[in-house]
Amino acid sequence: MSPLEKSRLVICIKAIMGLMARSFMKYILDGKEQTAKQLLHDIDETKKQIKFKMLEGDLLELYKNMVLAVHVETKGGVDFITWTVEYELINPNNPHPISVLNWTIEFTKDVEAHIFG
């Protein structure tokens, strides 16, 4: 099952001051259902980018803070998606968020397949 199928993505989005919003989502990561409350900010339609700052949830048990950013750039009629994960480990023995990167890759593939069939 793909991340898109396994995710109950943004269950609730509440707009805050125009260019920010809060979201709550449930998703599967490493075979476990997890939750996240996020602040969506730096939303820029012209630059085609958005950032998701984790406010609460399972990932903050491992990371002091985490921000996921997605940016779409069009070159020669082709869209390129760049995901960036900014994080700080709570404990140096905690794993780096490779599973989060894998999730974003699979999620992006699923969205692309859904849109383009």
Protein described:
This is Kirola. Residues 15-116 form the Bet v I/Major latex protein domain. It holds the Pfam family Bet_v_1. The protein is of the alpha+beta class and 117 residues long. It has a single domain (3-116), classed as START domain (Alpha-D-Glucose-1,6-Bisphosphate, Chain A, domain 4). Helices cover 20% and strands 56% of the residues. It contains 2 helices and 6 strands; from the N terminus they run αββββββα. The chain has a 6-stranded antiparallel beta sheet with strand order 1-2-3-4-5-6. A hairpin with a 3-residue loop joins β1 (8-16) and β2 (20-29).
Let me know the average pLDDT: 85
Q: Write down the domain tally.
A: 1
CATH domain topology? Alpha-D-Glucose-1,6-Bisphosphate, Chain A, domain 4
Biggest sheet overview: 6 strands, antiparallel
Unreliable stretches (pLDDT < 50, length at least 5) are none
**Terminal residue distance:** 17 Å
Secondary-structure content class: alpha+beta
Element-level helix/strand string: HEEEEEEH
Strand content: over 45%
Describe the global form.
globular
Radius of gyration: 15 Å
The total strand number stands at: 6
What is the percent of helical residues? 10-25%
The strands making up the biggest β-sheet line up spatially as 1-2-3-4-5-6
CATH superfamily: START domain
Number of helices: 2
CATH class: Alpha Beta
CATH architecture: 2-Layer Sandwich
